[in-house]
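User: Okay, second chain of the day. Same drill as before: sequence in, structure tokens out.
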Amino acid sequence: MELVRNEEKNKAFRERARELVSQMTLEEKAFQMMHGAPAIERLDIKAYNWWNEALHGVARAGVATVFPQAIGLAATFDEDFLEEVADAISTEGRAKFNAQQKFDDTDIYKGLTFWSPNVNIFRDPRWGRGHETFGEDPYLTSRLGVRFIEGLQGHDENYLKASACAKHFAVHSGPEALRHRFNAVASVQDMYETYLPAFKACIQEAKVESVMGAYNRTNGEPCCGSKTLLKDILRDEWGFEGHVVSDCWAIKDFHEGHDVTSGPLESVAMAVKNGCDLNCGNLFGYVKEAVESGMIPEERVDEALVNLFTTRMKLGLFDEKGKTPYDDIPYTVVDSKEMRELNLKAAEKCIVLLKNENNMLPLDKSKLNTVGVIGPNANNRRALVGNYEGTASRYFTVSEGIQEYLGDDVRVLVSDGCHLHLDRTEFLSAGKDRYSEVKAVCEASDVIIMCLGLDAGLEGEEGDTGNSYASGDKPDLNLPGNQQEVLEIAYASGKPVVLVLLAGSALAVTWADEHIPAIVQGWYPGAQGGRAIARMLFGDVNPEGHLPVTFYYDTNDLPEFTDYSMEGRTYRYMKNEALYPFGYGLSYTNYEYQDVKASAASVGTDGITVSATVKNTGDRQGTETVQVYVKIMKEGTPNAQLKGISKVTLAPGESKEVSVKLPAEAFGLYDEEGKFVIDQTQATIYVGGQAPDTRSEKLTGKKVAALSVAVEV
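Assistant: Same drill. Structure tokens below.
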């Protein structure tokens, strides 16, 4: 849907904001620049708390629909669906806000300014916050980020449904333990090729209302006070017109961690002067003193406040009730039947089938008497939701989903198997205290469903996780604790084993790939996740998810975690083979591509269109993700990169023609100075259901079609 905003209305909001700000005292102005902005009764300004979260559902404010974590939504490769989910989130957000306002609740997590999405690039699978992102690819992240923002912000020409926020600007992906003092060094080429494109798309295409800075420094400058990022790139180069918010308490890192300022006053001056408008935290209490001592011009403070109050006005917060089309959304839409159905659909679309030897899946329940469900994630609610989560009225873990699905027809035996990451489940035991139970369940069962992986207590934000690693990052890519051992016990039983991984990042399940016949990546699938996984395992749902990240064989395949160079990282630059490649995902049916062609022999200024007839040659309905990759055939260029996506649903035997338009920009690259260049050269366009790498070919037995074109822009 085309995004149309009434520019005249926006100008009127800014003028109204300017008039309001002109009536404030300097002290009042300073307090309005903090996330917990107090009321100014003499100006009829209500208290407003800017801090709210909606990464995969309205978070931290009571009951709301808990959708799959962002990385799971990314696995859908479905931008239309991402907008549908975000629209549902903002509908619940408005419903909750309307109720909260009615009862004068202006607490934290009760506003309409959602600090989502996280469009950082998941460059290293050890990063704990990677599951908040849309994966490792700038193109996919851009497309999903844009549509998520459009879903949150809505399409009314006058008012925002909610305010979205692209974060964390920029070059931010760990290590979490060092983030308050870390300097991420990235070349100009890597900045423009990898770290900045998603932010640019969110600003120029989706007109995102706000941008949040990162904790770390980038090339020596703290991100929340970076002239390069906040002024030169964001405002001057890209034309951003919204407001900039700091990450929470990040301003104090300038003097406490980064040592670039002498104390809070200087830190505040640096942040405000370089374009930070809003402080998540309380240091902007120093703004008054910084202005009075000549460190910040008051005009810059006024500019920041005009940006902030314009956002509040776009949300309709200064108009009488009934003026915006969202004021009458009732509380009853929250957690409604329709929301639960959408959430189940989301969880189903996220699932990636990684291995299915001899078509072991789907399971036929009519042939089963007893099913064993084993593992620390079998009944772990935390492994459903990831972080920045809301509260569901009901959760379905994998064991609950399977028990509900099978009912009284099939006996289900459940065991934790082991602790998620410790060596025992009961503190006083001698360790490995569920192994005998695992063996008993295996012995009694016809098939074993192993539920292993991680949860948000193991991978997440620094200070937010409760694991032995503390920082939230993973030390390696292995299954933690005794999980591998328990998996091997199940395998040794001789019974058929299905491995279901719940995790927000890639795990090196190399042993499992060699020994276990069926492997499923379920991500953190949301409150309905267990039901979705059960429906997929027993064939009611045909998996359609694809990996938005690379699964590596081993940690040794990765460069140093602290190295921000993209060399050797992600499918775009790696030289080694992957365990499971980016873009990979199996189905219960089979798709064939015929008549793959380009609209011309060369790429001109209007780009080029590629098309293919996709046929479902299997015996069940499925949805194929048509992926289009471009490789510039020149020395020193990246591997083939994703540049187009189309989803197509096909009944058995059905064919459809799919077309994907590639703009001329899809054939350009940034040079070492950060200049965008489209060289007159040859390019190869790949069209298929996977990336054009040798490992994907081995895993699927399929080769994608390749078209050679001349680039003549």
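The domain at 337-549 is CATH 3.40.50.1700 (Rossmann fold).

User: Thanks, on to the next one.
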